[in-house]
Please model this.
Amino acid sequence: MTEDFYCENVLSGNIDVDVVHETENVLAYRHTRPYWETHIVVIPKRHISSLLTMDPADDELLVEIFAVIRAVAAKVVEESGSARVLSNLGNYQESKHLHFHVNSGRQIRPDNPS
Model:
């Protein structure tokens, strides 16, 4: 996998994604290789490596990201009855771009998401 799948492929337009929610600064779309029956990824539209690299200047963006996560998760709960919100850090984070997974249902791929 690339160092930053989201900048190199999604945000650059190199691959098409099924957008479920979008704001000026945040994109939520159906995962291109889902791990769960419902699997949505939420990313900032500008590069931020990780939740751990954010600084106070990013506070407004973080609030916007969580507003999108809340909207997406509410829709997933409405449709399926439950949802998980997950973000990986450090060695668990395969793609070095801040992202959150909103998922529900049974796992359809056994390996861990990045």
